[in-house]
Each structure stands twice: as C-alpha cells, then as structure tokens.
Amino acid sequence: MVVSIGFEGSANKLGIGIIRDGIVLANPRRTFITPPGEGFKPVDTANHHQLNIVLLLKEALDEAKIDPQEIDVVCYTKGPGLGSPLVSVAVFARTVSQLWGKPIIGVNHCIGHIEMARLITGAQNPIVLYVSGGNTQIIAYSQKRYRIFGETVDIAVGNCLDRFARLLKLSNHPSPGHNIEQLAKNGKIYVPLPYVVKGMDMSFSGVLTYIEEFATTLQEYTVEDLCFSLQETVFAMLVETTERAMAHCGAQEVLICGGVGCNIRLQEMMSEMCKERGAKVFATDERFCIDNGAMIAHAGAEMFRVGVLTSWEDTFCTQRYRTDEVEVKWRNDI
Asked: Binding of substrate: at which residues (predicted)?
C-alpha cells in the first residue's frame, strides 16, 4: 500500500495531492488569477506559490487525515512548465523530503495528466489527446514509451484560446478558456477561419492572428460568434488528427486530458467521431483535467511501485521535458 504526496506548480495552478493505492485522499488547489486582459508572469506566479504552499500542505494533510510519517514518497513536477513556478515548488518538495526523511521522485507533468486520466476513467490503451495551455499532443503507448504521433508546431491550443480571451478582456476566473466556452454557446454565425493541419501536426498561431483582426472591428459578427468559430475550428483540427492516429493504431478508445479537456464542446465533437468508428471517448471533469497535485502523486506512486526514484543530484527542474523521454516501466501491456 503506497501513500504518495504530489506537488504541482508548473503554471498558475498550485496543487498538493495525497493518494493511497489509487484512491485520492486530498487534492486542494490554489489558482493565481490576474486581471482581465493580462496573462501571468512567471515571477509573480512563483511568488503566489511560495505564499500559499505551506497553508495548502496543511490543508492537504488535514483533509487526508494522515501524518507525514505515513507518507512513503514525495513527488513533484520536474517539467515541463514555467521555470520560476517549477523551481519554487520543487525547492519546497525537496525541503519536505529532507525534513520527513522520504525518497523523492521528479514527475513529468504530461505523464501525470495521462496516468491520472487513465486511473479515473478506466481507459485501457487509448489514443491520448493531451490539450492544455502549454501542450498539444496526440499520444499512443508502445514499448514502454508514450509516443507522440502529432503535436502543435507553434503555440498550444489552450494558449490560443487564452490569448484570444485576453484580447477580448474576458475574466481569468475561473479560466479564460472556460469563459470562451460559455460565450461560444450563444454563437450563431460561423466565421470561416484558417484550418492548418500538416500531416499529424497542427498550427494555431495563424488562426489566432486571423481572428484577432475580426475582434478589433467585429464587423457584422458578435463576440459570441467569434468564440464559437474559434472553438469549432481548432477542435475540428484536434478531432481530425486524433482520428488519424486511431486509424493508424487500430485503437478503439480516446482519452482526453489536460485543462482544455474540460471543454464540453470538444468532448461532444470527439464523441461524434468515436461513435462513427464504434469507439469510446473518455474524459474527466475539472477536478482532474486541470493541473492538480493528485496527478503528480499518482504518477509518482506508479514509478515508486516499480523502484524508480530520483537521485538527489537529479532533483532539478527542466522547462523542456518531452512526454516520450520517460521510460514507462510501470506498464506491462504491449
């Protein structure tokens, strides 16, 4: 029975999760929210994490009703992510590891999303669509690696949505993408936008630049129309490339994870595609789609279970840490 604690702080979400054998005991989270029209700077985000992490740790331990000595392993996000926030949380995790005398594991953020989503949904061997503010990847597991079949060639789909929300001066609470989703529900007119799929890869920077010009003039379109059109276009690109990966691998499952995976419209579009193929789509809600500590705790526990630990010299952070760099020793299928 492994009890693990996970520290996540790769972007503007600070989360601490505690898991016992795949059961979430606690998963509190704090979000650094900036004024409408503004993004979050790495230094300010790191300061937010430093100010909140001690109280959040106490909250997690109280919610889980366990003492530090009951914890077997300390896990933290090693990357990818924003440098300053990553380091601020990693330093705290290393301190806790020393104070409690526990081993430490650096976890790949993307792997954390995938493994948590697999745990919650029960998906066995899906094509994974990992979509967030910093990452857009289509992934399939093979021979101890999560192989990247396709990805963005420039900005992530979540970053595309966030930047458009920023231009519209939408609130950052609870998230810019969520507020675009709500406006899109009232869109009536589809505005034709650039659709850029290059083989298995996608590009979102051009469609963002194109729609920004509409947003400054609006012309005959409403803000709701633009939000609706942007969602429909970028999500269609994601569904197309995911379906191609399914055809290549002969997969009958799709797993959507990452912050953008909360979007109901994306889930609906993916469900329609899967229905036509006789396949299933799996997704989680905002508790586990959005960055959280439990996903780091769970992925770390899986690594710990097969004897993977991080040496003290390697407990650094890296902003560039690709999903396919990690050897997935804990999976025995295929």
From this structure: 130-134, 162, 177, 181, 263
Write out the binding residues for substrate.
130-134, 162, 177, 181, 263
Using 50, 70 and 90 to split pLDDT, how confident is the model at 219?
A: confident
Annotated binding site: 109, 113, 130-134, 162, 177, 181, 263, 291
The CA–CA distances, whole Å, from 174 to 13, 182, 231 equal 11, 12, 18
Q: Identify the residue whose tokens are 């990847």.
A: 137
Specify binding-site residues for a divalent metal cation. Answer: 109, 113, 130, 291
Asked whether residue 180 falls in the same domain as residue 85, the answer is: no
Cite the beta strand spans of 132-267 per DSSP E: 136-142, 145-151, 197-198, 201-202, 253-257
Any domain includes 168: yes
> How far, in Å, CA of 4 to CA of 9, rounded?
17
Tokens 């005991």 sit on residue: 25
pLDDT digits (tens, 9 = 90+) for 99-110: 999 999 999 999
- pLDDT for 213 equals 85
CA distance 117 to 87: 25
User: Does the structure show a pLDDT above 80 at 218?
Assistant: no
Range of the domain at 275: 126-286
CA 287-290-293 angle, to 5 degrees, is 75
pLDDT of residue 303: 98
Q: Which helix (H) or strand (E) holds 4?
A: strand 3-8
Query: Which pLDDT value is given to residue 333?
Result: 83
Do 255 and 132 share a structural domain? yes
